[in-house]
Amino acid sequence: xxxxxxxxxxxxxxxxxxxxxxxxxxxxxxxxxxxxxxxxxxxxxxxxxxxxxxxxxxxxxxxxxxxxxxxxxxxxxxxxxxxxxxxxxxxxxxxxxxxxxxxxxxxxxxxxxxxxxxxxxxxxxxxxxxxxxxxxxxxxxxxxxxxxxxxxxxxxxxxxxxxxxxxxxxxxxxxxxxxxxxxxxxxxxxxxxxxxxxxxxxxxxxxxxxxxxxxxxxxxxxxxxxxxxxxxxxxxxxxxxxxxxxxxxxxxxxxxxxxxxxxxxxxxxxxxxxxxxxxxxxxxxxxxxxxxxxxxxxxxxxxxxxxxxxxxxxxxxxxxxxxxxxxxxxxxxxxxxxxxxxxxxxxxxxxxxxxxxxxxxxxxxxxxxxxxxxxxxxxxxxxxxxxxxxxxxxxxxxxxxxxxxxxxxxxxxxxx
Length: 416
Hints:
The chain is mainly α. It has 18 helices and 4 strands. The chain has a 4-stranded antiparallel β-sheet, with helices on one face. A hairpin with a 4-residue loop joins strand 2 and strand 3.
């Protein structure tokens, strides 16, 4: 038992030191993007119909570090401001699959081929899905998103310098979103590396389409963010899963989420929702088969020996320690801080809603924005960790509050 635990810790630390420099770089670039790319700019360039809005929507979504929940309010804003169903779905498809942070981590753990192949697959998936939606789902759903779904994807409207906003987003807000999932992903990778014999999965699942279908069935219902999925994929490859099958998991896990699918179904129609899921499934399998034809077993060799790491070991250790400090500041310390009171100054909320489906800061912001638009609401305080929203106001209509949350793509579990 002791040897198993120690081996798990060693594997955990090895993966952490390998990915930390690239993840920190990804956080920094994500912070810069957060102040350079505003929702208004996105709306200006992605509105309208036809091929180019679909292409640009998919292209812009590739580097943005948004999960499949966080992308919902941004897509909602696009839709309300004139983007076609196809452009909206293209953005919904390509964005959660990758981001600058996950691309950097993919480069460190899986090598340059998959680091390039993965965003290209996300781009093509978004384009094809968007075009299919424009062609096949023209009559589905209402004409536009409800205004309750409006939200900003960046922090550009906050006070302070752009540099501080970039640092705050890249090294506080984004790690808050990814921290728990990233730690879980690293632990799972360590457990797989320590507990599973080499080539174990190759003997059970074999190669080709069978293993891809199995990982697709695992990836669709089990949500894991684009960055946290990488160490798990690396561990699976090291234990016998083909790179193509691992890519299927890298595509389906981050791109599918109950809140996103529910919102697409409600707002864009069931045909669009089926097209969304079908596009992910088909493109994941096609991408996996193509990747296996391109790379063969070379990725497994890279994963097993970490031949790609060209950074000195001390730099990896220093980066890992810095990343741990960032995660502690973003994830652990806020749990011990006193909860902020509402802007209204009231100590007791006039209504409290337990909200299901919130997984990140973008989710919390979307719920806060939705509730703030209800008549009678003065202010809203959303507790992401506690999965609840405290509403302050007068003559509050509880059914209206519930509807606002549900229209934003989330679920009210109970009310007090």
